[in-house]
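Sample pair:
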Amino acid sequence: AYFAYVNLFKPPPRPDATWMRIVEEGVFRIGIDPSFPPFEADDGKGNLSGLDIALADEMVRQWSSDNGVDVRVQYVYTGFDGLYDALKAGQFDAILSALPYNPKMTEDVRFSHSYFNGGPLIVVRESDRTTKTWYDLANQRVGVELGSTGDSFARRWQRRLKYDLHTYNMPADALRALRLGQVDGVFTDIIAFNDFARAEGGVKTVGKPLVNELIVIAVRKDTPTLLQQINAVIDAMKHDGRMERMQAQWLVTGGQ
């Protein structure tokens, strides 16, 4: 009983060194490949914009308020393929760059809670009142971008549901075929859909993503406090509607 009592009142773990440095120096260093709008883009003059930039701004705003210090973001431009190595080498504190959750990397890094699901959606014509799930497209023509996640999902169900599969080189080509009545549904991601819907219209999404493609933030394994602080902001933003509004701003209207 004595030991249980002692353990119950253990002091909280000491904040990790990276988090202490962020608060003391007021700088949160982020590794980013700024070539993937609407998540991140550089206008050629060093000005960054996108969903990830807005999320980073919200994080440091929250941390500044909570800790009574002014925390700002410092971006370290890194090619996407080199982000993990640069993180492990200590060149920055976190990767925030439309990073898909990768279970193979959990030995090396820790991932935040997801802040976006980029999995493929079902897209149908605006006049379609019957399609609610991929089952409803049985025996019908389904358009996909060749080699995409939507393509592999459609092939997995093709034999059972007898899809008449039509493949295209670009998502816009599949969506155009849908609008013209050449296919009955398309499996593609929200960004391709939004780009097409803004430019040409006539289509809508139904249901939730067919496959989870979770977008996350990565940190080193020795930064549990930083991870906790990142997750706290993501969770709060999901809870109070800020995340949904931010996604609507950047993914639907392109930041307008």
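The two ends are 61 Å apart (CA to CA).
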